[in-house]
Design goal:
By secondary structure, this protein is of the alpha+beta class. Helices cover 47% and strands 16% of the residues. A four-stranded antiparallel beta sheet has the order 2-3-1-4. The two termini are 23 Å apart.
Length: 175
């Protein structure tokens, strides 16, 4: 198992980016991502997710900080920090459900990328594979409402980002 920086307590070593691109093969795309990471240090995290399932940068930041803190406390649900980010952001305890919501799909898609402890040039490397587009991180309420099964009346009083952040926080209470 890779050794992660357990001293992370904030988002200082985290970068959240948006991209668009076409995934022709998920395994080949993941191999490309691993090659980027392995070309440098083999300890940084590059986690790609379905940006359409993200309710904005704040939602992703919240899931990331909860994942980092779970590793610091030894309360992680996954053995990999990137997968833990996926779980926490999706508000799920099961990896398969988290991948159903936030996982990559073959074809054209919007992607959210979380970089943890990665050098700056990783952004350039990713930009050679995908097109940089941070606008994909903005919430699409109609997609999110259906994806996370959020009742319409709940959205009359609470922003969708806050609803999803609440789902992430509830994972802490359930542990």
């Amino acid at each position: 198992m890779k050794e992660y920086n357990k001293e992370l307590a904030n988002l200082d070593n985290v970068e959240i980016l948006g991209f668009t691109g076409t995934i022709e093969s998920i395994p080949k795309t993941l191999d490309q991502i691993d090659n980027i990471r392995n070309s440098c240090c083999d300890v940084g995290i590059i986690q790609l997710m379905n940006a359409d399932a993200i309710a904005g940068k704040e939602h992703l930041q919240h899931g990331t900080i909860h994942a980092i803190n779970a590793f610091k406390r030894g309360e992680n649900l996954a053995n990999d920090l990137g997968i833990e980010v996926l779980l926490r952001t999706s508000g799920q305890r099961q990896i398969s459900k988290a991948f159903d919501i936030l996982g990559l799909k073959e074809g054209k898609m919007n992607m959210a990328v979380v970089l943890i402890d990665c050098p700056d040039y990783f952004v350039d490397e990713l930009s050679c594979i995908f097109e940089r587009n941070d606008a994909v991180l903005e919430a699409d309420e109609s997609i999110l409402k259906n994806l996370y099964d959020i009742p319409e009346n709940e959205l009359k009083t609470i922003k969708i980002c806050d609803v999803l952040i609440d789902k992430t926080s509830k994972l802490l209470v359930e542990q």
